[in-house]
Amino acid sequence: MIAVESLVKTRGGVRVLDEVSLAGAAGGVTALVGASGSGKTTLLRCLNGLETFEAGSLAVAGHRLVAGPHPPATLEVLRRDVGMVFQQFNLFPHLSVVDNVTLGPRVVLRETVSVARGRALDLLDRVGLADFATARPATLSGGQQQRVAIARALAMRPRVMLFDEPTSALDPAMTAEVLDVIVDLARSGQTMVVVTHDHGFARRAATWVVELAAGRVARQGPPPDVLG
Amino acid sequence: MRRLGHVRAPVAAVLAILAVGGTVTRAAELDEVVRRGALVWAADQEGGGPHVFPDPEQPTRLTGFEVELADLVAAELGVTARFQQGQWDRLPLLLGRSADCVINGFELTPERRRDYGCSRPYFAYALQFVGRRGAAPATLADLAAPGPRGAWRVGVLTGSAAEQVLRARSDLQVEVIGYDGTVDSLEQLRGGVLDGVVMDDCIFTFYADRFADLRAVDRPFAGGSYTVLTAAATPRLAAAIDAALGRLIADGRLEALYDRWDLAGRQQMLLLRDAAEIPAATRRDTWDLVRDTAPLLLKSAGMTVLLSCAAFPLAIAIGLAVAIGRLHGPAWLGPVLATYVEVLRGTPLMLQLYAIFFLLPKVGLALPAIVAAVAGLALNYSAYESEIYRAGLRAVPAGQLEAAMSLGLTKWQALRHVLVPQAVRLVMPPVTSDFIALFKDTSVCSAITVIELTKRYSVLALSTGRIVELAVATALLYLAMSWPLAILSRWFERRLERPAGARP
Ligand SMILES: Nc1ncnc2c1ncn2[C@@H]1O[C@H](COP(=O)(O)OP(=O)(O)OP(=O)(O)O)[C@@H](O)[C@H]1O
Ligand SMILES: [Mg+2]
User: I want to staple A49 with a disulfide (CB 3.0 to 4.6 A). Which of A75, A123, A208, B159 is the partner?
Assistant: First the structure.
């Protein structure tokens, strides 16, 4: 499902990703760990084409990206199959919670309003926010917002989900409620890549762990091998 | 000017009243004119020949029969004549301030006799209907029924006797359109925008060669005489000018002048023999004035609203398109749109309106005045709105576009569903305030014959002489229209300042 081969990404002459290859991350839950500035976010953004790279190639959910500018058409089909959840949630503040969730299905998948809405309410129920469908994002707590963001990404029925430190902007109580949702998702067989500093979570949920250090893969393998 | 916003509206209204209503403070009487050694006479060289116009051989020099008349009158007073330029329908406002008298084809009317010093008549004019060769109307009788395009569209000089006479003729199926210059109206007639122009016959005679494709329709149908206007506060100056004219007529110098200009018709000679007495007008009370002028003022206020409400949505649509094109369009489009914005922001609205109304017909695109006005306002404001929307689009956090694209939206879909709605909300206060500015800028459209509220005020004030009362009424009308907008704009601002969560 996910393969990365000798990926090189430079910023201002510095290699922020240096010959990164992911071998065993075919399916399941991959945890990306490593020190701050080691390139975790950059690698994740490369996976759904938000960043271009200079050398190497990658394949996600059957879509292949190569070095250089990505053709918009390639990105549009890739992103239907790859969902992304951001550290800062990035909910659409002008839309209600349910409209945040239905936007993609309506505009991209051309679902009717009633179909998209029905699925959105199911997803909101699944992340525990059925009562907040008509609220504005700004009225929700951080943990609730992040769960809406997860529902929004899931509404596209992605084959791969990418999470960039989904809980680092949250306090412990809110962190727990978001992690519960992600662990649930993992159990249901969703392929995902999660950037995290939380080794406990990685040990509990991940099937494969990749540790980056200064843009290189320091270690990768099953959780016990990498995290000890 | 245009960025005043709603706060200044009342202030502007008060200033307008002071500026227009603050009447004559220090009118120069005869002795001061003599001491100064110069008689300052006002006229509008844009009004055209044969009255006062730039010498075609030497455009820095003014010529015309009234230039020579002013020289003769000044010489009689023992001083030299000094010219003061002004827009024709506002020349009387210069009296007692920057001019001692107005010599510019001002018809002797009862209202003018009441409000100004008026000399004995010095010239006989006759009103002539001018049409295109080979085009309807063939005779004046045709005006009684609508033409092929509905009411006949007839141009006149704003504030002239031609305008008054024509507007009073309810038996004619004509739409009267006011112009600031005679040549402008003839150009528009030639371009097919107008069906006819009514003007003093001597003016048409003067321009007949230049407009060989135009013709006089029937004989002149009305007439009157010109007078020299002075301020009401300078009776001795008025008497001196009147006496000077008397001497010029008596010893034949005026006749000789008209001979030289080929203006010495039979009518002229009869007039010079006996200056007719004109009955004085009675002053009406304020209530009568309100009753008589209210329908006209309200109708013109409607025009102001129509212009604003038609132009602004267009300006917003174009402005938004330009902003999106500059930020997200192909690379070559950027400089093109930047030039569009700078050209429209860097040239006066008045000039743009002129170009659309007077120049486009030369390349075959003759727009009705209202369409030209709406187009001009919309284009001009689109430049400003595009800058506002550009700033608004840039103020939306980058994460929004990334989140939308991560859902698989194309860039255009992301713009339509995510970026633009947020930018539009963000810039609501400045955009509303621009709407108020445009609302007031509609007054510029009078330059291309659209009569909106300010123009109507100016015409009514000059024809009735009730400058202050009408200024108050006009200012109140403007406030009644802009106040709700100001309230709306403040409401938007408060709504945006509130924490997002407090919104329903
Ligand atoms: N927009 C940017 N412009 C320039 N350099 C950047 C930018 N974003 C990140 N970098 C640099 O790229 C490198 C990798 O950054 P990245 O954000 O991928 O690290 P990270 O592992 O996600 O760190 P963290 O744990 O702090 O989120 C760092 O050296 C960082 O300084
Ligand atoms: Mg990061």
Answer: A75
Percent of chain B topping pLDDT 70: 88
DSSP string for residues in B394-456: HHS-HHHHHHHHHTT--HHHHIIIIIHHHHHHHTHHHHHHHHHHHHHHGGGGGGGT---HHHH
CATH number of the domain enclosing B294: 1.10.3720.10
Q: What is the pLDDT of residues B377-409, one digit of tens each?
A: 999 999 999 999 999 999 999 999 999 999 999
What topology does CATH give the domain A2-227? Rossmann fold (3.40.50)
pTM (predicted TM-score): 0.72
Query: Residue B429 is encoded by which pair of tokens?
Result: 């206060």
Q: Is A30 in the pocket of ligand 1 (CB under 6 A)?
A: no
- Tens of pLDDT along B272-288? 665 433 334 445 577 77
- Rounded to two decimals, the ipTM of the complex is 0.94
Q: Is the Cβ pair B407, A79 closer than 8 Å?
A: yes
> B208 and B236 share a domain?
no
Structural domain range at position B252: 12-120+227-273
Contact (Cβ atoms closer than 8 angstroms) between residue B442 and residue B380? no
Nearest to B500 among A80, A104, A138 (CB): A138
In terms of domains, do B393 and B267 share one? no
Question: Is residue A39 within 6 Å of ligand 1 at its C-beta?
Answer: yes
Residue B178 pairs in a beta bridge with: B156
